[in-house]
Write a structure and sequence with these properties.
It is a single chain. By secondary structure, this protein is mainly β. The chain is built from one helix and eleven strands. It has one helix spanning 151-157; strands spanning 14-17, 23-24, 28-34, 42-50, 59-62, 67-69, 83-86, 95-96, 99-102, 110-119, 122-133. A hairpin with a 2-residue loop joins strand 10 (110-119) and strand 11. The radius of gyration is 17 Å and the shape is elongated.
Length: 158
């Protein structure tokens, strides 16, 4: 065995919205993933999102077929996979723009996207807190539909 001489990189993946603005609640938000270094390929990444309490929120969809749901990131409150991981080399370029974050419609206005990444310069962890606009506040039963009926219990009853 030999020691790995590649040093970990902090903030190995940079994430922005394609619009350049905040995430919009209740909809798919196209993202731009970047190695953050000109000419350095973004080889791989794993992503998930937490709310301010550290609870997994939202989900991801990928129009390019590179990212797949990753059970290791857990489930969100709606039973969806809350994270994704690359299933093949992401790109030979420094950016990838076919992944979207499906922002929750309820919440407190901030999410932290985070994960692991690999570039031609090395590997490491990353996280980025992003504003979510248009979120509705939670109501008495823990959702944001404006009534006091627990929708999960209502679905179980019939």
């Amino acid at each position: 065995n030999t020691e790995n001489s590649i040093l970990p990189i902090q903030q190995v993946v940079l994430v922005t919205t394609q619009s350049g603005g905040p995430l919009i609640a209740g909809q798919a938000n196209p993202l731009v993933l970047s190695s953050g270094a000109p000419g350095v390929a973004l080889d791989g990444a794993m992503l998930y999102a937490n709310n301010a309490s550290g609870v997994r929120v939202g989900s991801f969809t990928d129009a390019g077929g590179i990212f797949k749901d990753f059970p290791g990131c857990g489930l969100n409150a709606h039973g969806q996979m809350a994270g994704v991981i690359h299933s093949q080399l992401i790109t030979c370029n420094e950016t990838y723009s076919m992944l979207s974050y499906n922002a929750p419609k309820c919440g407190n206005g901030m999410v932290m996207l985070a994960g692991l990444g690999v570039t031609d310069n090395g590997f490491g962890v990353w996280n980025q807190t992003m504003q979510v606009t248009g979120q509705k506040p939670f109501d008495m039963d823990g959702d944001c539909d404006g009534d006091s009926t627990d929708d999960k219990k209502r679905k179980l009853k019939g």
